């Protein structure tokens, strides 16, 4: 028999050689007994840290009652979750799915259907932005537009053009009679923690209103308190017509949604969209428990305040280690620190891991800093201390050259 080289799990990721067996709060414990400060949070997913007692309780209680029934029937937990989320957002209605990319693709369908219903069936194109990330399904990938991710997968799905972020004139010039909407992340995550300006979002809103387009926010990274407000768009106050949410929503249980105003969702009538698992009793039960915690008075305000503290500490690191760190980016617990060209972000991520701290890299040589929203000052201080030690080790290596 021929010996296989391929791993049983398809090797599409460059994984770190570490296996975790347990998580608790801000920490992950590996099979070799090492403890890590987890400032990756499953890429902004584990909003309440690992094994938060309220989530464990919701998961196990719901798990003993009912998991899945299909969308052929009403789902109480889902109706409750949707009602609560409409109360704390711009949206009037939402569709539950299982991931971010699915939420993006559902939102795109909604936008096209809106145009169709409004007598504009030719309008299907979506204006997107350079360095965006919207997921890996074929349309989400075309919206992402990253050449490296698209290579080899055939012609990209048609209708996605990419403008530079925060450049209103280019966006305005891109609008043609086939344009249906504009898709933007209030703060680009994977792209390197790149924020839109309030003025830019206002301009996008105005362009949409002028030309009859829908404004679609990708809040997958920025939603659920990650930036220190419930939604990323709360910083600008500029409301979209459609938004995609996921990541922090289930605190680690897979769930996403696209949500919209009643006006935008005009075409989403029975039979227009579906998902076998989407919004099942177990997923929406857990997501309700996440929301219970996030909506406790002061919880998200505390994220904002702790985020201010983290920001100050990161700025301090930039001052102290200018040969390693260039600048702090972001707010709340969606922050990053850009490394100098001499220190590739991937090397920094590895160094931090060897020092006991986990963080994800991003574009523009940025290392993302994503504490769980429950992280306190002591956890932040621990992280800053490790970031400082990592910088010292790069400085020492440079001095020894
Ligand atoms: C993670 C992410 C996605 C994709 O979500 P998946 O659940 O991986 O499909 C889309 N957009 C943004 C902004 C993200 O951060």
From TrEMBL:
Q: What is the lineage of its organism?
A: Bacteria, Pseudomonadati, Pseudomonadota, Alphaproteobacteria, Hyphomicrobiales
Its name, as the record gives it, is Acetylornithine aminotransferase
The cellular location(s) given in this protein's UniProt record come to:
Cytoplasm
CDD domains, per the entry: OAT_like
Task: State the family named in the UniProt similarity comment for this chain.
Answer: Belongs to the class-III pyridoxal-phosphate-dependent aminotransferase family. ArgD subfamily.
- According to its UniProt record, this protein's enzyme class is transferase
Q: Name one GO cellular component term.
A: cytoplasm
- Keyword list, A-Z: Amino-acid biosynthesis, Aminotransferase, Arginine biosynthesis, Cytoplasm, Pyridoxal phosphate, Transferase
Its pathway is: Amino-acid biosynthesis; L-arginine biosynthesis; N(2)-acetyl-L-ornithine from L-glutamate: step 4/4
Its GO biological process annotations read:
L-arginine biosynthetic process
| The protein's assembly and partners | Homodimer.
Q: Does the keyword Transferase apply?
A: yes
Q: What is its main location?
A: cytoplasm
Binding positions (pyridoxal 5'-phosphate): 100-101, 133, 276
Q: What else does UniProt say about it?
A: May also have succinyldiaminopimelate aminotransferase activity, thus carrying out the corresponding step in lysine biosynthesis.
Q: Answer yes or no on keyword Transferase.
A: yes
Q: Name one GO molecular function term.
A: pyridoxal phosphate binding
Cofactor binding remark: Binds 1 pyridoxal phosphate per subunit.
Against InterPro entries, the record matches this protein to: AcOrn/SuccOrn_fam, Aminotrans_3, Aminotrans_3_PPA_site, Class-III_PLP-dep_AT, PyrdxlP-dep_Trfase, PyrdxlP-dep_Trfase_major, PyrdxlP-dep_Trfase_small
* Catalyzed reactions per annotation: N(2)-acetyl-L-ornithine + 2-oxoglutarate = N-acetyl-L-glutamate 5-semialdehyde + L-glutamate
Q: Which PROSITE patterns match?
A: AA_TRANSFER_CLASS_3
According to its UniProt record, the EC number is 2.6.1.11
- Residues given in the record as N(2)-acetyl-L-ornithine binding sites: 136, 275
Residue numbers of N6-(pyridoxal phosphate)lysine PTMs: 247
């Amino acid at each position: 028999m021929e010996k296989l080289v391929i791993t049983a799990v398809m090797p599409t990721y460059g994984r770190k050689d570490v296996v975790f067996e347990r998580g608790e709060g801000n920490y992950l414990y590996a099979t070799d007994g090492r403890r890590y400060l987890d400032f990756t949070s499953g890429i902004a997913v584990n909003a309440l840290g690992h094994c938060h007692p309220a989530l464990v309780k919701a998961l196990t209680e719901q798990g003993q009652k009912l998991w899945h029934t299909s969308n052929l029937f009403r789902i109480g937990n889902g109706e409750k979750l949707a009602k609560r989320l409409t109360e704390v957002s711009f949206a009037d209605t939402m569709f539950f799915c299982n991931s971010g990319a699915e939420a993006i693709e559902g939102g795109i369908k909604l936008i096209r259907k809106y145009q169709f219903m409004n007598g504009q069936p030719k309008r299907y194109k979506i204006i997107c932005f350079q360095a965006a990330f919207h997921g890996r399904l074929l349309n989400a990938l075309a919206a992402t537009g990253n050449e490296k991710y698209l290579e080899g997968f055939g012609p990209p799905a048609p209708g996605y053009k990419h403008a530079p972020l925060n450049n209103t004139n280019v966006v305005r010039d891109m609008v043609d009679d086939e344009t249906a909407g504009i898709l933007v992340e209030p703060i680009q995550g994977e792209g390197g923690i790149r924020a839109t300006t309030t003025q830019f979002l206002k301009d996008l809103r105005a362009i949409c209103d002028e030309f009859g387009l829908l404004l679609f926010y990708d809040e997958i990274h920025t939603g659920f308190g990650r930036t220190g407000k419930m939604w990323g768009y709360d910083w600008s106050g500029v409301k979209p017509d459609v938004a995609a949410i996921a990541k922090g929503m289930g605190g680690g249980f897979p769930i996403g949604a696209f949500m919209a105003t009643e006006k935008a969702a005009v075409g989403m009538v029975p039979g227009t969209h579906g998902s076998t698992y989407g919004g099942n009793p177990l997923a929406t039960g857990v997501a309700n428990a996440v929301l219970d915690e996030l909506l406790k008075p002061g919880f998200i305000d505390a994220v904002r305040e702790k985020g201010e503290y983290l920001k100050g500490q990161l700025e301090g690191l930039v001052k102290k280690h200018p040969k390693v760190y260039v600048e702090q980016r972001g707010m709340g617990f969606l922050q990053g620190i850009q490394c100098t060209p001499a220190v590739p972000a991937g090397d920094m991520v590895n160094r931090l891991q060897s020092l006991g701290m986990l963080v994800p890299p991003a574009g523009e040589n940025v290392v993302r800093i994503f504490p769980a929203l429950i992280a306190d000052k002591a956890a932040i201080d621990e992280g800053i201390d490790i970031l400082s030690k990592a910088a010292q080790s790069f400085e020492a290596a440079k001095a020894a050259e």
